[in-house]
Amino acid sequence: MNRTSWKDIREELERRIAVREWAPGATLPGEETLAVEFGASRATVNRAMQDLAARGLIERKRKAGSKVSANPVREARFVIPLVKQEVEASGARYDYSLLSSEFAEAPELVSARLQIGPGARFIHVRCLHLADRAPYQYEDRWIHIAAVPEVELVDFRTIGPNEWLVANAPFSTAEYAFFAAGASADEASALGVEPGSPVFVGERLTWLARRPITLVRMTHPPTHRVITRL
Fold first, then answer.
1. Phi, psi for residue 202 in degrees, rounded to 5
2. What domains, with CATH codes, occur in the chain?
3. What is the share, in percent, of the chain residues with pLDDT greater than 90?
4. What phi and psi values does residue 32 have, to the nearest 5 degrees?
5. Residues 168/133, Cβ–Cβ less than 8 Å
6. How far apart are CA 18 and CA 15, in angstroms?
7. Which helix (H) or strand (E) holds 16?
8. pTM score, two decimals?
């Protein structure tokens, strides 16, 4: 293999993490070893690894080497919020209720959004987040099992999928959209509104390298506000 660009090296290392060639907690080869493999200078490899560390995919320590992050934290340029923290920051009491969790093949629309072929295995989770016992967010999420195999063992009755993924599923790319919509029957039932009523929706897709991780639709009552502090 003859790669000299630090971006090419980063992409290949990211791919190995994505396909679990290097599992969470695994020690990566040293910079000198990687430099020989890629036919690049050690400085080029170092830059690639610095970027992976900034993305939260690996942890680097002097003399101890580099490891795949066991509990990845995305750097500040994109932070996925935890619903629990949002609710508690407002002074309200947070509660969580799992509505359903099942293994399923994603419908055509979900597969198309994630750009993944038919037959891929997913976990489909539907849950409700509450603030002072009132519906705050209805979460409808598809998780790609091949991207995060450990998810098969998670009991989502005790932890929300958003919270678990933030702690256990590093990502390199994300797409976020906000829009108004009419409540579907499921959304209306969960939020206590009439079907077709206006609701505030957030949709997020995340990938690690080119492998999709999750697609989530987060639906809020029409009174919901998004507040950003800088």
1. -120, 135
2. 6-68 (1.10.10.10), 83-220 (3.40.1410.10)
3. 52
4. -65, -40
5. no
6. 5
7. helix 6-18
8. 0.74
For the chain, give the mean pLDDT: 88
Rounded (5°) CA angle 71-218-106: 80
Amino acid at the residue 71: N
- The C-alpha torsion from 217 through 128 and 164 to 123, rounded to 10°, is -60
pLDDT digit string (tens) for 24-75? 888 999 999 999 999 899 899 999 998 888 877 888 887 778 998 876 554 4
Residue in this structure with the two tokens 């170092």, named with its chain if needed: 46
Q: What is the pLDDT of residue 77?
A: 43
Distances (CA, A) of 117 to 57, 88, 205: 26, 39, 16
Those residues with Cβ within 8 angstroms of residue 177's Cβ, 6 or more apart along the chain or in another chain = 202, 203, 204
pLDDT of 188 > 90? The answer is yes
Question: What sign does the dihedral 103-108-111-117 (CA atoms) show?
Answer: positive
